[in-house]
Amino acid sequence: MSAEREADAAAPARTLQVVQAPAAQVLAPAMAPRVAAAPLARRAAALERVQAVAGQLVPQLQYQIMRLGTAGQAGLAALVGALAVAIGALVPAYHALQTLNADIARAQHPSAVNNIEQAIPHLVASLPTRAQIPAVIGLVVTQAKEAGVSLDKGHYLYVPPKSGAIARYELEFPVKAGYPEIRSFINRTLGAVPAAALSKLHVERKAVADPAVNADIGFVVFVRSE
């Protein structure tokens, strides 16, 4: 009996040693599934919220449809059907219209480009040459006289072409005349010399009551290279 009691007394000591031994090894595998299950739990919670919102919206939609009554429901069905038919008919028509517009634009562009390309040689050929500039200047002087503007001074500068076959003459006239006469002189010159363009106009009046103004008028006359 004394030997059995000694064995019973020693048994709990051995049991405590076995339980206390590897506590960290027992807890680590148990926590791993909990960490992995956290994202799944969040996804499940989000899905439950979506289902809850859908569960609230569907009954409300059904209630609103039921409020329409039989005639309202039939009208709604007819409206939905008509909308579907309209969409099915209008979308192809819209695409057909877009295609037609694109075809028209493609058909118009080449002709416009060809017309411009054909017009450029004719335009260059219509420009005066350097030998014709004295006659052009005489025509400008004539337009000034008819407009009542006296051209006492004038500056001329020839600018050779940088590239291509078009050069230019820069003409500048300081004049003193009334503003209506100056405007008439400019309009007459641009009408009589198609190769000319107005490049400069500076007008200054010395006094408010002075009917005449001082003006610097500049023209550019385009010429073709011979």
Task: Characterise this structure.
By secondary structure, this protein is of the alpha+beta class. The protein has 5 helices and 4 strands. It has a 4-stranded antiparallel sheet. Helix 4 (133-147) packs antiparallel against helix 5 (179-192). The longest helix is centred in the middle third of the chain and has 58 residues, at 69-126. The termini are far apart. Mean pLDDT is 73; it is low at 1-30.
Task: Please supply descriptive tags for the structure shown above.
single chain, 226 residues, alpha+beta, four-stranded antiparallel sheet, elongated, disordered N terminus
Would you summarize the structure shown here?
This protein has helices at residues 2-20, 23-67, 69-126, 133-147, 179-192, and strands at residues 155-159, 166-178, 196-204, 212-224.
Major sheet: arrangement of strands: 1-2-4-3
Radius of gyration: 49 Å
Poorly predicted regions are 1-30
Overall 3D geometry? Answer: elongated
Order of helices and strands: HHHHEEHEE
User: What's the count of strands?
Assistant: 4
What is the average per-residue confidence, as pLDDT, rounded to a whole number? 73
N/C terminus separation: 143 Å
Largest sheet: 4 strands, antiparallel
Query: In DSSP terms, counting alpha (H) and pi (I) runs of 4 or more, how many helices?
Result: 5
